[in-house]
């Protein structure tokens, strides 16, 4: 197989299909300890190969608690990978529509543009399953996608060639489809190999040190997108969510330190209380004059200390969470360090740490702190004060991780003590991030395993296939100039790329992946430098572990020290279980074969084999708690991702209805000509709206809330009337006339409060409620 391999420390990986693979090899690459011997490492590799090759014929399912927990964890990881892709697609649509809806609201969009935006969403429901329309093309595209997946340098080269307008669709296919199984070692390692190629090019072709990894390019967008995958989201939730929510809850804590803003607020507050301003308090001053004002300095001084205290708490949390950082993110940090040392051999660690910080903090940590709602870490937008505090914390961390720059905001220099106090430990943390093992040998084994299984496939949409083909075709000349080999042959055979299908015709297909140039894997034992006795040894070990896990616990036959011959005989004579009998007979045969080869000795109770089996069983005994702990964490992540998905779907539905309404009005029909059905009223109690989060603040006394209810009516598309009523009274206490345009503009401007005098509504939750109750086929 034509996969570029790099030599690195040995660390073999076992296949996820193995039922007894150690957890350090099944989980996301978070524990690359490399503590096992070379001999054991090689044997684990052979175990992976043996088990994977027999996966289709696997005739014994283990049903102990560990196996059940592992199965649940595997299914959960698959769901997170799938849901992450759906959210990425929805977020892309929402980003597109956010900008276009703003133009609609401000009446700056031509009729044909409105039609284009509306058509962008037509039939944008979940994509249906289907089959590839052409058998011959199925094989050719299977060859192409296998090549792209197994030889990451092609995608790495393409990522450097595409424009910012093309990068989102490419990232969708690469991050969430070609390497979409976010918790499977082979795909993750191949994706990281692709990153290595991209980063190497970036370092080799960026002349200015200060520009490395900082410009907004397709490569930087790719690195940011990588951090948004399941493992990155899990880290943010586990490590940062509680700390961020603590700040968000301090709604009244004003830590503004910009002297000009502090002065302006002082002027506003004085006018509110006293009316006219005194002579020594001019309404307008320069930033420099505000900074010199003694009253402003007195206000700012304690705020600086408070900000540094909060910054230290964030930093403590981040440093303590080192082991929670996903392996892939740590490995990228390691490549940045390695490439920096190669390009700048005289650079000190402190200089290198600024580049690592440029990725870890600028692309990963700080965006989540500044916009926690976008990262699903909080439910609602933070208030003005918490939002400003979080922005300051992010700036402080960025200045700490990079060389501080106060040119635009000289007042930030007052926080310099935070930098001096923490510079050494942040540098140590960033260097510690890089201390992870490499994976090159395990990737080589995973690729052999993948070839041997013969059942590689990819769930991908037709438009993703055609979109990738289009990009490759567009940049074929440049791609071929560097590598005129297999990729050029496959593109020539495929011919012109098909056009994108309408959304309603797009289908998700399962594409078999295989290499056009390797129909079989010859002499695996020679390729892996292993012997027949090693294969027999690991087959025996895996067989005995499977048998012991399948036997009832605490029986005489499973007592320690293990008597392997008795275990084999017990399995071979099992009643009413032909599978166990077959395993028992095979284990007896293996004991005899290994005895004849001189690998084990019956006189010492087959000690060499027995000891490794017992070590594996001890390891498995401690695995279940780790699996359950990881499952608990990932369940929270999955729940958050699903909630975010529902929010995105609701947002798109809101946009759809609004666009339908705009189109209807653009057709020139007056309201008198249109026959609109009045929808509603829909009745909601105070308690219902409070429970759903629509009411976020209420001035209604507790003892009267049970008698309060609200009627929601839609007399015309895009128009709503909310009236507040008290039981027993004929007329409502108040009535509010709302326009959908106004609500959307409030949301766009991050105005979350809708004031109804007696209660405050949450704008987003109101939109969601209106969407559920009043969505019409042709608009609201």
Automatic annotation (TrEMBL):
Domain (Ras-GAP) ranges: 186-402
PANTHER family from the UniProt entry: GTPASE-ACTIVATING PROTEIN, RAS GTPASE-ACTIVATING PROTEIN WITH IQ MOTIF
A Pfam family it matches: RasGAP
The organism of origin for this protein: Microthyrium microscopicum
Highest taxon of source: Eukaryota
Low complexity biased stretches: 8-25
Cross-referenced SMART domains: RasGAP
Protein name: Rho GTPase activation protein
Gene3D superfamilies in UniProt: GTPase Activation - p120gap, domain 1
GO cellular component, one term: cell cortex
Region (Disordered): 1-40
One GO term of the biological process aspect: negative regulation of Ras protein signal transduction
GO molecular function: GTPase activator activity
């Amino acid at each position: 197989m034509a996969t570029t391999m790099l030599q690195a420390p040995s660390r073999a990986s076992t296949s996820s299909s193995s039922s007894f693979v150690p957890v350090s090899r099944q989980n996301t690459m978070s524990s690359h300890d490399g503590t096992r011997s070379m001999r054991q490492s090689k044997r684990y590799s052979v175990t992976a190969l043996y088990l994977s090759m027999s996966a289709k014929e696997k005739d014994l399912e283990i049903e102990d608690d560990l196996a059940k927990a592992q199965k649940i964890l595997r299914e959960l990881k698959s769901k997170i990978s799938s849901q992450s892709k759906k959210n990425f697609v929805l977020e892309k649509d929402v980003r597109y529509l956010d900008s276009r809806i703003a133009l609609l609201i401000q009446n700056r969009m031509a009729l044909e543009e409105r039609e284009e935006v509306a058509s962008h969403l037509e039939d944008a429901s979940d994509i249906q399953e289907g089959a590839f329309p052409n058998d011959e093309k199925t094989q050719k595209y299977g060859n192409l996608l296998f090549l792209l997946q197994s030889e990451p340098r092609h995608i790495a080269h393409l990522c450097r060639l595409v424009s910012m307008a093309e990068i989102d669709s490419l990232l969708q296919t690469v991050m969430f489809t070609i390497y979409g199984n976010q918790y499977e070692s082979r795909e993750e390692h191949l994706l990281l190999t692709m990153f290595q190629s991209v980063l190497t090019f970036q370092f080799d072709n960026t002349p200015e040190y200060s520009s490395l990894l900082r410009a907004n390019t397709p490569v930087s967008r790719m690195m940011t997108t990588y951090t948004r995958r399941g493992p990155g989201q899990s880290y943010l939730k586990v490590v940062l969510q509680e700390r961020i929510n603590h700040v968000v809850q301090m709604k009244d804590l004003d830590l503004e330190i910009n002297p000009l803003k502090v002065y302006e607020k002082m002027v506003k507050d004085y006018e509110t209380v006293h009316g006219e301003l005194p002579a020594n308090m001019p309404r307008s001053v320069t930033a420099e004059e505000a900074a010199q004002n003694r009253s402003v300095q007195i206000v700012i001084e304690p705020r600086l200390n408070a900000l540094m205290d909060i910054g230290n708490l964030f930093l403590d949390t981040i440093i303590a969470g080192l082991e929670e950082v996903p392996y892939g993110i740590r490995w990228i940090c390691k490549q940045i360090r390695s490439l920096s040392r190669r390009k700048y051999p005289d650079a000190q660690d402190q200089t290198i740490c600024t580049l690592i910080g440029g990725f870890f903090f600028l692309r990963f940590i700080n965006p989540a702190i500044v916009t926690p709602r976008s990262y699903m870490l909080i439910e609602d937008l933070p208030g003005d004060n918490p939002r400003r505090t979080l922005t300051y914390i992010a700036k402080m961390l960025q200045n700490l991780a990079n060389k501080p720059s106060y040119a635009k905001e000289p007042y930030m220099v007052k926080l310099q003590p935070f930098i001096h106090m923490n510079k050494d430990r942040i540098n140590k943390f960033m260097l510690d991030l890089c201390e992870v093992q490499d994976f090159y040998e395990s990737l080589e084994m995973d690729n052999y395993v993948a070839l041997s299984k013969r059942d590689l496939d990819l769930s991908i949409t037709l438009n993703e296939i055609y979109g990738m083909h289009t990009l490759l075709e567009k940049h074929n000349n440049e791609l071929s100039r560097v590598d005129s080999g297999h990729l050029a042959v496959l593109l020539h055979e495929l011919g012109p790329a098909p056009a994108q299908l309408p959304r309603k015709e797009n289908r998700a297909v399962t594409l078999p992946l295989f290499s056009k140039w390797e129909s079989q894997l010859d002499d695996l034992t020679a390729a892996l430098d292993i012997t027949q006795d090693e294969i027999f040894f690991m087959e025996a070990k895996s067989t005995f572990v499977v048998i012991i896990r399948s036997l009832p616990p605490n029986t005489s036959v499973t007592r320690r020290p293990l008597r392997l011959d008795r275990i084999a005989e017990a399995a071979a004579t099992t009643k009413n279980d032909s599978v166990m009998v077959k395993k028992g007979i095979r284990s007896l045969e293996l004991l005899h074969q290994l005895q004849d080869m001189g690998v084990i000795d019956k006189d010492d109770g087959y000690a060499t084999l027995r000891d490794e089996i017992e070590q594996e069983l001890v390891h498995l005994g401690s695995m279940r708690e780790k699996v359950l702990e990881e499952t608990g964490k990932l369940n929270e992540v999955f729940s958050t991702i699903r909630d975010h998905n529902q929010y995105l779907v609701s947002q798109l539905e809101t946009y759809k209805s609004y666009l339908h309404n705009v189109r209807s009005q653009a057709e020139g029909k007056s309201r008198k000509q249109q026959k609109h059905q009045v929808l509603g009223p829909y009745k909601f109690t105070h308690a219902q709206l409070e429970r759903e989060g629509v009411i976020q603040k209420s001035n209604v006394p507790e003892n009267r809330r049970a008698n309060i209810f609200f009627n929601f009516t839609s007399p015309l598309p895009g128009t709503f009337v909310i009236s507040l009523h008290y039981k027993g009274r004929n007329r409502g206490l108040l009535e509010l006339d709302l326009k959908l345009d106004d609500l959307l503009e409030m949301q766009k401007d991050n105005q979350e409060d809708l004031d109804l005098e007696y209660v405050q509504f949450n704008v987003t939750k109101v939109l969601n409620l209106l969407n559920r109750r009043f969505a019409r086929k042709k608009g609201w």
